[in-house]
Design goal:
Length: about 850
């Protein structure tokens, strides 16, 4: 159960119940403050008996018959001496211009606060209630009701006279009344009635549940939620009633309206007052408890609960125990709950105290979160409702949150929150950095320092760098890499690093960091020297990025030693900046590196380094023999005699063979293959490449007394030389390995050749026959001859103008046409005629004839 936050010009009196003083983790829904100023003065000499609330002011009645008008701060604005005895009730119309008052001595007064209008009447019994029409200010609504032993309605007639009528009597004293719109609700000893002032009908009677309770000690509490919803609280029972219109078919002699109870439930304590709060209820409860020490019943502090009504039960939303003055002597009837609908203000009235409860706003919510040290939630709430909060600032909450985290030793989280909370406020950033320095936690805040907008003073960054330099070289290097070089004085940091290197000159982390600092300072020469010393992978990137080729002309060997592959690629890509000649000269004392460079150059372009091809022969021979032969084959600029000399000196047979063959000395090359390599397959391959009959003859002669060579020749010579030439030369009795297999292979190769020839012949014959048939079909087709055709000899129309005359036309397959008489007479040796135009082709397309006669 939440302990109410109560203050007197600050806070309410502390509770005598220690258990209720314990803080709850559940946030209260309402906040409380004592109504002071004039109210304090009044209640020091008098006691409050009743109160009513208007949006503009308050009206307080006392036991000594006084009525005070108060502002919302409790200051007295007006005082009325109504009676020498207790004021029982005060009623105000909605405009706040008319007030009705009744007292224990039977006096009733209804008067205008700002006009001379006034009604006085003294009855012979105590008047417990009075209620003026909500629209009393209107001339048509000059009505009010009073209640003692009976309920009277007073109305002003057209002659400005007041007339009264009895609405109800005979069921005991009228003890409570509420007027809303056209409906009047009141309670007597038997229950609650509702009267419709328009139809002049009483529309319901709601009996009270617990008749054992004295109605004067436990009075009924009435409250209109709206024009048709009445809330009744009596004893421990709550009923919510809805006034509804009766259907015309159900009227008969019944009232036009009826009441339906939509919710009914019991509460834990006795009800002293009710008020609506949206769809919930605010309930003021009178509490009695039994003392553990004396086992006697005593009056405990009253409670103000917020509940959610359900159909047959309710759900408690919050419950606050209120410490009001003199609660130990108060009874249930001494408490009243009044409320202001416009501002959701609730006034708890007791004889010696008036406490105001109001809904907690966002500022109050943040106050509670801060009190509970829930800073992150408070910060989030402030950000969400920054337009609505008045007493708090997001920055102040954020700073308090940072301080809280620091106090708890959560330095990293505190530093991370600085980014969000401090934002772009450079002054606050610097303040927090110094605060972290005081507690020795500069490292914690370093990752989160702003690096752009805003930029702090260089001293701040230098201070953090010095902190890392003293204790954490890796962290120092990380900051140098991540922070832009313009955040701090570079020369100061360079000097500091150099001082540390005097103690530890071989520390690679410091050396690398110093190189980076030199780079920021555009001192690329020093940076490059350090990178090369460290053999750092970024050296090539540094050279490219800052165009340091002029600085590396004398450092080519170092670069090659570090990474020859990357160095060569870089040098070849930038020949315009470092010439080939310069590189070769620098590598003169390192021929193995010189070879790597020239080999890569040759791979890129066979002609660029032609002046060094002679040198490369020796370099390939010394360091890279596998690539010597490809080099000799691809190069057109190396001197063959020099290459031959080197290869012969080193007894490089394959290279010597290639050079001899290239120089035209194929027979010596073949001889070297046979004598030096003893490789018949290579010799045969060489002979095939040269395609020289004399070489084949030399090969046969050399092999004739070597059985393994004869086998190799028999297996491979068949397609280039007639095997009979070799077989005839084999000496009788010579044992040749695998001779049978070789002869079988020769026969198989021969058979295969025969089969290939026969297959080709069949294909040729088939194709010839197919083409012949096609030609025959083509030649057998008719040829169109009409008046447009002319004789190719006389150029006159091929057909006579007179079709009746006989004619003879010759049409060749070439589509040339002649008059028969225009063709030469065929010779005696050959009766075949040829087209004069195509005769040069000799039995070409014009050799065949199609003769037309008529």
């Amino acid at each position: 159960m939440a302990e109410a936050e109560e203050q007197e010009t600050g806070s309410l009196e502390e509770s005598t119940d220690d258990s209720e003083e314990e803080e709850s983790e559940e946030e209260p829904k309402l906040k409380y403050e004592r109504l002071s100023n004039g109210v304090t003065e009044i209640l020091q000499k008098d006691a409050a008996s009743c109160m009513t609330v208007h949006d503009k002011f308050l009206a307080l009645g006392t036991h000594y018959g006084k009525v005070y008008l108060l502002d919302v701060q409790g200051n007295i604005t007006q005082k009325f001496d109504v009676s020498p005895v207790k004021i029982n009730q005060i009623s105000l119309d909605e405009s706040g211009e008319h007030m009705g008052v009744c007292s224990e001595d039977g006096k009733v007064q209804v008067f205008g606060l700002y006009s001379g209008e006034e009604f006085h009447e003294t009855f012979d019994c105590p008047i417990k209630i009075v209620a003026v029409h909500p629209h009393f200010v209107r001339s048509s609504c000059k009505q009010f009701v009073t209640g003692g032993k009976k309920l009277l309605l007073f109305e002003r007639s057209w002659m400005n006279r007041w007339k009264s009528s009895v609405l109800h009597e005979g069921e005991g004293n009228i003890r409570s009344v509420k007027w809303r719109g056209h409906l009047i609700a009141w309670a007597n000893n038997m229950g609650v009635k509702i009267f419709d002032i328009t139809s002049k009908q009483r529309i319901t009677n709601v009996p009270r549940d617990d008749i054992s309770l004295r109605p004067d000690m436990y009075p009924c509490s009435l409250c209109w939620k709206d024009n048709v919803t009445l809330i009744i609280g009596w004893g421990t029972s709550v009923k919510i009633c809805s006034v509804k219109e009766r259907h015309a078919s159900e009227m008969r002699d019944l009232p036009s309206r009826y009441v339906e109870i939509v919710s009914q439930f019991e509460t834990e304590f006795y009800i002293s007052g009710l008020a609506p709060l949206c769809d919930q209820l605010v309930v003021l409860s009178y509490v009695k408890e039994i003392s553990e020490k004396t086992e006697r019943e005593y009056c405990a502090r009253p409670r103000l609960d917020i509940i959610q009504p359900l159909s047959e039960t309710c759900e408690e939303i919050s419950s606050d125990a209120l410490t009001v003055r003199g609660f130990q002597e108060n009874e249930c009837r001494d408490y009243h709950l009044e409320y202001s609908e416009g501002e959701s203000l609730f006034y708890i009235v007791s004889p010696r105290d008036v406490v105001v409860a109001k809904e907690r706003d966002q500022d109050d919510h943040i106050d509670w979160l801060l009190e509970k040290k829930k800073y992150e939630e408070a910060l989030m709430a402030a950000e969400i409702s920054q337009r609505n909060i008045k007493r708090h600032k997001i920055l102040d909450i954020g700073l308090a949150y940072i301080n809280h985290l620091v106090e708890r030793g959560e330095y990293d989280i505190a530093a991370r929150k600085c980014q969000k909370i401090l934002g772009k406020n450079a002054a606050l950033w610097e303040y927090e950095v110094y605060k972290f320095k005081e507690i020795g936690q500069l490292k914690a805040i370093s990752p989160y320092l702003p690096r752009g907008d805003p930029v702090l003073k260089p001293l701040i960054y230098e201070m953090i760098l010095h902190e890392f330099l003293e204790s954490d070289y890796e962290g120092f290097a990380t900051l140098i890499r991540e922070w832009p070089g313009d955040l701090y004085n570079n020369s100061v940091i360079v000097q500091a690093v150099r001082d540390h290197l005097k103690k530890d000159g071989q520390n690679k982390t410091l050396l690398k960091t110093l190189a980076e600092l030199y780079t920021y300072d555009k001192n690329y020469g020093n940076a490059l020297e350090i990178y090369l010393t460290l053999r750092h992978k970024d050296v090539f990137q540094l050279i490219h990025k800052h165009n340091l080729f002029s600085s590396i002309k004398d450092k080519i060997v170092l670069l090659m030693d570090f990474d020859s592959e990357k160095a060569v690629d870089m040098l070849l890509d930038n020949e315009d900046k470092i010439s080939i000649k310069k590189v070769v000269e620098e590598l003169e004392d390192r021929p193995e590196l010189q070879h790597v460079y020239l080999h890569k150059l040759f791979k890129r372009d066979h002609h660029k380094g032609q002046r060094y091809h002679e040198k490369q022969i020796s370099l390939y021979a010394e360091y890279d023999r596998p690539n010597l032969l490809p080099f000799l084959r691809d190069s057109t600029h190396c001197p063959l005699e020099k290459a031959l000399e080197i290869c012969q000196q080193r007894n490089f047979v394959e290279e010597t063979v290639y050079l001899l063959s290239r120089m035209g000395n194929s027979r010596s090359a073949l001889k070297m293959i046979m004598e030096e390599l003893h490789d018949v397959d290579k010799a045969i391959e060489f002979a095939k490449e040269q395609d020289d009959g004399e070489l084949w003859e030399d090969l046969i002669l050399y092999s004739i007394d070597k059985p393994p060579f004869i086998t190799g020749l028999l297996n491979n010579i068949g397609t280039h030389v007639d095997p009979i030439l070799l077989i005839h030369r084999i000496k009788e009795g010579m044992e040749i390995p695998n001779l049978r297999d070789s002869l079988v292979k020769i026969l198989q190769d021969y058979n295969l050749q025969i089969l290939l020839r026969e297959g080709c012949k069949k294909i040729l014959v088939a194709d010839s026959l197919s083409l012949l048939k096609k030609m025959h079909r083509t030649q057998m087709k008719g040829v169109l001859v009409d008046e447009e055709n002319v004789c190719e000899s006389c150029l006159s129309p091929i057909l006579p103008s007179d079709a009746a005359k006989p004619f003879s036309v010759v049409v060749f397959h070439c589509r040339h046409m002649f008059h028969k008489e225009c063709l030469p007479v065929p010779s005696m040796n050959s009766a075949t005629q040829f087209c004069n135009i195509c005769s040069a082709k000799n039995r070409g397309p014009g050799s065949a004839i199609l003769e037309m006669k008529k």
